[in-house]
Amino acid sequence: WPRTRRTRTVTTPGPTRWPPPSPPRTRPPKRWSRRPP
């Protein structure tokens, strides 16, 4: 059944997106150093 496979793929991307809250924080600092002269 494709329904059991879809629930497994949805549960994997959910928990993997929560832990990576650090990578997005390192990206904003790069834009700030480029804005100032």
Automatic annotation (TrEMBL):
Q: Spans of biased composition, class Pro residues?
A: 16-26
The UniProt regions of compositional bias labelled Basic residues, in chain numbering, are 27-37
| Lineage top rank: taxon | Bacteria
Q: Where is this region: Disordered?
A: 1-37
Q: What is this protein called?
A: Uncharacterized protein
Which species does this protein come from? uncultured Actinomycetospora sp
